[in-house]
Design brief:
Blueprint lengths: L7 E3 L6 E2 L2 E8 L4 E6 L6 E2 L1 E4 L6 H13 L4 E16 L4 E14 L16 E5 L1 H9 L8 H16 L14
Parallel strand pairs: 1-7, 2-8, 3-8
Antiparallel strand pairs: 3-4, 3-6, 4-5, 4-9, 7-8
Length: 177
């Protein structure tokens, strides 16, 4: 079996800690918006993401992170979007990281929420944003290339959501690679 060619993103940094995991890109067909974590300090819109234990199924682990961090839980559709190696500075934990990150697209049935309890370092709230708002937010905050992998995954997820007939509002100009 041929090994998958996995792209690498970001800038390699000293003393990187390895923590594999993934992220979820969550789309609500009714509002035509994506669920994100809004950090009031700095205004960054973030994906719901986190580490996955060695013995944990990657899709189940990312789904767990999405539910724990957003409260969203009622999914109509889930699909793996891609895998990438990412080098970045984890501002929430204040460490340099390298991760093999797997991203999934989550299409919501509804926006019902379960109660969440963020970990100490998770300083964000659930927010909703359009594709364009997310691209603008990340584009203005990516000078250190910490968001390269999110941009890559997000473009792939938006293309997939459009192909499935869910995302009818996104502009294709932002999706050029």
């Amino acid at each position: 079996m041929e090994e998958e060619n996995i792209p690498e993103f970001g800038i390699k940094r000293e003393n990187e800690e390895r923590r594999d995991g993934g992220c979820g890109i969550v789309f609500d067909p009714e509002t035509q918006k994506y669920a994100v974590g809004y950090r009031s300090e700095g205004g960054l819109l973030g994906l719901f993401a986190g580490g996955v234990d060695d013995d944990e199924d990657i899709q189940k682990g990312v789904e767990r992170e999405v539910v724990e961090e957003s409260g969203l839980h009622n999914f109509l559709y889930i699909e793996k979007i891609g895998i990438g190696f990412a080098h970045y500075y984890n501002a929430l934990r204040k460490v340099n990281r390298v991760t093999k990150s797997t991203c999934f697209l989550f299409i919501l049935k509804d926006i019902d929420l379960v109660e969440i309890k963020h970990e100490e370092h998770e300083k964000f709230v659930l927010a909703w944003a359009t594709t364009e708002e997310i691209f603008l937010n990340w584009g203005s905050r990516n000078k250190e290339h910490n968001l390269d992998h999110w941009l890559y995954f997000f473009k792939k997820a938006v293309r997939k959501a459009k192909a499935l007939g869910y995302d009818a509002t996104s502009s294709l100009k932002n999706l050029a690679e």
